[in-house]
Amino acid sequence: MTKPKIGISMVRSEKAAYPNDSLKSAYAEAVISAGGLPVLLPNLAASVELLSWCEGLLLTGGGDFDPSLFGQSDQGTDWVGFNAERDQTELLLIGEAKRLSMPIFGICRGIQALAVAFGGDLIQDIASSRPNALKHSADQLREQSQHRVSVTAHTNTAEILGETELWVNSFHHQAVEQPPPDWIVSARASDGLIEAIEKPGDHFLLGVQWHPENLTRDLQAARRLFEAFVGACREWGGTHVGLSN
Ligand SMILES: [Mn+2]
After folding, report:
1. Which of 22, 102, 133, 213 has the largest count of CB atoms under 10 Å?
2. In the CATH scheme, what architecture does the domain 5-239 have?
3. Residue 242's pLDDT is what?
C-alpha cells in the first residue's frame, strides 16, 4: 500500500540565539503508525512548493496567532507570543491545500489555524473571556486526560472516533469561538467550549483542540483520527496522480 506523504507544520522558536523550527516527535510517529510518511515543512515560503509533493497537510500545536489575522485587537493576554513567519507560512500552506482540495487535519493551534484561514473566529484567552470554563491549559503529562468531550452524533468526527463521549488532554488557552461558514462544531467540552470542527460532506477537513498524537498508545479513538486522515490522504493521492509529482 502506498504511503501518502503528509506535510507537517513546525514550531518557530525565537528563544534560541537563532530562529529554530522544530517538531515534537509524537506527530511524526503518529503519522508513521497510521501508514503515512512525514514531510517536515519549515516556516519558509518555499514550504508551499514542498506541500505540492504531499498528499495531506497536518497543522500542529504551538503559540498564538496574531489577533489582527482574525480581526481582533491584542487584548494583552498573549501567552506564548506571536510568530509572524509561522502565521504567514501556515496561512500560505492552508491556502495551497485549499486550492488543491487536499485533506487537512488541525491539532490544537491547528484547529485555530483552520478557523482563522477559513473565516471563523477565536477566543483570544479562555480564562478572561470564559471565567467559568474548565481548566484547559493543564500542567501535567501530555498522555493524561484532562476533561471530557461530547461528540456530535452523525458527524465525520463521530464516525471516525467511534465514540460520542471521550476523555482528552488539554493544553490550550485559546479556543475556536465560531467555526468558519459551512463548517460545523463536531465536539464540545462539558463547559460548552468548542473542541472539534469539521467541514461536512467534504474530503477530510477537520480540527481537534486536544492532542491525539500523545494519546495513541492508550486511546483507540486517537489512533483512528490519524488512520482516517492518512487514509483520506492516500485516497486523495490516488485521484490526483501526476498533479504534483
Ligand atoms: Mn480543552
Report:
1. 102
2. 3-Layer(aba) Sandwich (3.40)
3. 53
